[in-house]
Structure to design on (1340 residues):
């Protein structure tokens, strides 16, 4: 049994905490949240314990790993402390919006022998996983084109957009990671185009809500990503990988497998209404992968460096959008 | 070039005549119809010639084969004459509604060395053909269950139903033939249930418009057929064959391959609106098969005996419907 | 919070117990199994308590409802005791293989004011529920035909078949219930055909493994059911309801929504491999419905009489199979 | 009846000629080809007449319209002559590879009162037409993103690529036109990325075989196009239009609507093997539209200016590819 503590009893924290509680080889020992009442309610429901301070968790001998699901501005500090305390970490992305701060944490993490996983949970969606496996096994030959679609059902509040850093930093970032994961490559260049077509107010705060990007991979493969902040038909996330021997798709997943035939039409339910309903199971799969890593299994998982890589692509994309030129991407390695 | 004459310049006659005219290895030499004006119009359009009498066709040296697409009550006589004249024949089904009359023609045909093909054109639908090929090649192993769906868009006129002999004799008969063709077997027994749910007037003339049947094959395989005279969503014809190694389906064929995603729904066009639009290409494929038979190729095609077989099943089904018991089917072979 | 006890710590008992433990408004107070070790292991995992005897449960003031998931031959007795003790009951089907015994329990249950639900969990599958809702809301008009497909991935052990009463009593029975639930009718007559095509040994013990049935509804609607004990492509359960205004289908549910395009083919994953993987979520939905019934909500649920009804159809189907005639079905009402 | 003459008895010329011959309101009076034998064979098959010179056609009173399907380098001259002769024209694209030459013909055509249609036959594919209609009728609201996929089954010969001007000029050009047609806009800017991944020899002659483009529309809408010269699964052409109220797709069209379920897989036929098999019916639909234009119906059709527009986009795309910057597109109007 692996002893866990969790930072953050909000929406995502509750998801992780519930998954830990339900996992047959994990034990949720502590919950910490600056909102103590939220921590208490969650602890009561899951029969866990509230930690009175982060220090209580760092010094707890029965805590092997922590999940960081608190607000973004606390991630870097908690990561540093976890590294110091020798705890394994599952950290929601991003580590920090400041790239230099992320680099500093990545540098620190070099010292830690414990696994640190970044929460790119889409990698653990069963459909995407099956696509990844097909690609890795050579089912489609050499990858030549990747097409990624990311369309959220409705825009987040403006306040969120201002804090998150905008569409590329909070939405597209998952797909930057998927592009690298699927191709085993990191793009050398990105071109981005976009506009605020859904809501002019999003444009007023300096962001776009509708965008398309082209990434160039070192192998010559090309990657397209399209993003929207709003659909009328539900959450739309799709992957297509085209290669020298074939193509594989992670298609839209319908909410129900029913069809109504009437009046010369076939009417079927659309996809899952929101990203969370669509991707909820991937959080449990991601946690399970993390636990298997801790148990010593050979599992490839998203690392801090993968998180930084996606952020560097996002920054380059933003620059491209603003300057309307393709932008070369420079990566960074810890010393 | 194979010289053709056609009897019947009505709807189906026109379809066949047009296909003959367009076939690179066929020549439509004569058209005959008791309605001379109809024959003339068709002849003009297709640059063919009107025959003044059937005899002109029987004695024409440049007529190798005839298509019989005139009214049902003329089929048997024309077939006899064609056999006497040594012409190959493509005859629309049925030969005659009187079983004894059909047997008599089958007996006569024993004398003829020329191919006689009965118009079970569904066997030549490309999707159904591909299912047939998969089954024959053992892709699904030993056949255990066959499911056939036959739902017309709207009921024919009552006058037609009274002449045609009813649902089993004019609609289900194609599927009795498909069941035999797909399984390489003829059913030993049939059970039929049905009612006039679409239009009570159909019940008043002694027929049903909604029915289900179970056929038992000698191998133990079972076959289901469901029939309706009316849908609101277009013409619905499907085949499913289930066997020891798998299942193969000829699915609904949509009118257009487009999808509209809106308001949490996916809306797509239904199937082809009517049987003719759905099956139109199969008439050309059937004609081409007939021509290849005449050219000496090894092509399996529906024979007069196959037509009689389907009729005998229909008669047994009708008896079963009326007596509400399963009915054994006795087949007949020419001497 | 509703206090639960469960009888049976086997496969299905474990499923129910886990669902109770995870339900936010239920509390699993006791587990009983004649195999005490099994009960203990389950109790430890779910932090529940082992009951030393059924009586302990019947007299427990904190037990409001029981789930009966023990072996079939114990159902009737436990039901009687639960009725005496005033407990609500969720009982796995069947109540008993002896029809007279079932009637006797139904009669007793007339005395009980507490809800008794029979475990027809397919009614709670989300896709089937959506089909049911469409039909009830008149989306397809008046029901004219129902087509139900039930194909298990592999035959159960012969020993199970001998105890369960065979294909109609253990497999088709769920679909007899679905037919009634979907149409709001009970069939007046059934015709059944079948054979042991999958495994002759199944025939040797007097059962069939491949079968087709036609049910006649009082309204004139017809219902087809086909059953197989084996597929090579996974668990195949489908519903199609055809009516005067349209058709609605609960389609095959694919294991993954991915497609591989290669070598002129599209290859996609088949359906869920087994009935349990396909229907697992319906057990939780069924439990939730039961809890909502206990909370006083208006929820239509499968009753003891529904269970008896399905069994009476199964008995008539068996008679039909043996005598090869359609058999009228007589229902029974408690005094 | 509209009298037609055709220039070119090659592959596409034969397609057009056959469609004219089959059209009930058209008459194919003359065929001209520098290869007289080809013209004679086609004329014999279609019962038409060989013209001994273009002049014979220009002066023929019974020729109302001509189809130009000869080699590209003859298009501009024939167009000029047709304009002089007062004939209506259906001209295969492009008018000429030299933009200035095209402009000059467009300028001349200003004088002609007769319709001149450019052969963007994809606009007449039934699926694409239905998508176009949905968009024009506002079914998806305001267009925000267009995604176009164009993947040919195999690369043309190197010799063709050298003559045609490369991927953007011979393949993508159809999709530049579709983008404009679907959005009722012409892009203001294009960014193109590409490489020779399929065959290095294509790179050696200065072209790419794998490419992605982003077009910016005046409204802010974005358009993605991806191109490949090779698939292993057949011809892949798809359209997706995403708007403020929904999304509509012209999906892959499968060769057959059959599915084989076996070994936990569903195997279905891929799309049509090549562009011609997929798009063949659109040539007849395009011809029919042209004839309806000649008959005075209000039909929107692709004009010489539309052809020039697509070429100007292609030139800008090529510049973008070479310079790796987005390139603004300047259009041209005749005086």
């Amino acid at each position: 049994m692996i002893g866990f503590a969790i930072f953050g009893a909000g929406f995502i924290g509750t998801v992780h905490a519930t998954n830990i509680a339900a996992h047959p080889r994990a034990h949720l020992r502590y919950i910490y949240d600056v909102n103590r009442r939220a921590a208490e309610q969650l602890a009561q429901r899951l029969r866990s314990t509230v930690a009175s301070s982060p220090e209580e968790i760092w010094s707890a001998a029965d805590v092997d790993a922590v999940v960081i699901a608190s607000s973004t501005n606390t991630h870097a500090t908690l990561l540093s402390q976890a590294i110091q305390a020798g705890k394994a970490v599952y950290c929601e992305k991003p580590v920090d919006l400041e790239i230099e701060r992320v680099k500093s944490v990545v540098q620190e993490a070099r010292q830690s022998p414990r696994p640190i996983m970044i929460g790119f949970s889409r990698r653990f969606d069963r459909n995407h996983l099956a696509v990844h496996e097909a690609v890795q096994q050579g089912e489609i030959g050499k990858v030549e084109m990747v097409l990624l679609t990311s369309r959220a059902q409705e825009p987040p509040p403006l306040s969120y957009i201002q804090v998150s850093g905008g569409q590329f930093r909070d939405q597209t970032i998952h797909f930057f990671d998927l592009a690298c994961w699927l191709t085993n490559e990191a793009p050398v260049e990105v071109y981005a185009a976009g506009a605020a077509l859904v809501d002019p107010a999003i444009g007023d705060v300096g962001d776009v809500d509708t965008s398309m990007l082209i990434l160039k991979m070192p192998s010559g493969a090309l990657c397209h990503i399209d993003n929207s902040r709003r659909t009328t038909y539900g959450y739309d996330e799709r992957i297509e990988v085209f290669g020298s021997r074939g193509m594989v798709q992670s298609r839209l997943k319908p909410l129900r497998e029913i069809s109504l035939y009437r009046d010369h039409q076939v009417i079927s339910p659309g996809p899952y209404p929101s990203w969370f309903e669509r991707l909820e199971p991937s959080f449990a799969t991601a946690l399970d992968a993390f636990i298997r890593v801790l148990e010593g299994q050979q599992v490839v998982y998203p690392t801090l460096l993968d998180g930084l890589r996606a952020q560097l692509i996002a920054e380059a994309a933003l620059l491209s959008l603003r300057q309307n030129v393709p932008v070369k991407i420079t990566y960074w390695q810890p010393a």
Summary: The interface with chain C takes residues 142, 144-145, 147, 151, 191, 193-195, 197-198, 210-212, 214, 216, 220-222, 224, 226, 228, 230-233, 236, 242, 244-247, 324-326 of chain B (CB under 8 Å). Residues 275-294 of chain B form the longest helix (20 residues). Chain B has a mean pLDDT of 97.
